[in-house]
Amino acid sequence: MAKSGRAAVFDVDGTLVDTNHLHVVTWWEAFRQAGHDVPMHAIHRAVGLASTDLVAHLLGEDRDTDQDAGISAAHKALYGQYFDRLPALPEAGALLRRLHRDGWTVVLATSAGGAELSALRRAIDADDAITATASADDVDAGKPAPEPVEHALGLAGVPAERAVFVGDTVWDMRAGSRAGVRCVGVLCGGIPRTDLEQSGADAVYADPAHLLSSLRDGPLA
């Protein structure tokens, strides 16, 4: 059991690092290269799903699945061009360090892995506060399945009722709700407050800076 007995689990893209629109543009280009005209607003709503799930969600079950790997690889290569300059959202690192000081076990739950995850962690610049990272590579099903959050709780050694999950998409809120944790939404990923609340958010904040300034009377008090 973790010493703190409580865990703060964070999604990364759109929650701690301002990358959602970079993902939208690079997915759009990857689809375009494969001959698919997918509207950017539809891609934006799908960001947060694991790559294979995102392609299936946007192209449908009757697509040519032989294209899936190539589309995902194209997105990965296009997005990789930004690794040296991914922008952290306001006070993201400060929020994680404050929670760590307050006794929370901080765990990241993300579909990113490898060089992408390293780039995201460099952007956040709070490695001293992060206890563990639950990657999509570690589970059979990505969000909105509960497995990524459950895996994060296992790494923290904390039961669901002693945890809070912070994310920016409906997929995050559904995953956290299914895992039985209290969910907090942030608006900095571009998803409307109503959508987050309807998907399970108990509280919604503008961004990490807003959450940090509201810690005293919020779910992470």
TrEMBL record:
- One cellular component (GO) term of this entry: cytosol
Gene Ontology terms describing biological process: DNA repair
Q: Which InterPro entries match?
A: HAD-like_hydrolase_sf, HAD-like_sf, HAD-SF_hydro_IA, HAD_sf, PGP-like_dom2
Coiled-coil residues: none
- Which molecular-function annotations from GO does this UniProt entry contain? phosphoglycolate phosphatase activity
Q: From what superkingdom does this record's organism come?
A: Bacteria
Q: What is this protein called?
A: Putative Phosphatase
Query: Which species does the entry assign this protein to?
Result: Streptomyces afghaniensis 772
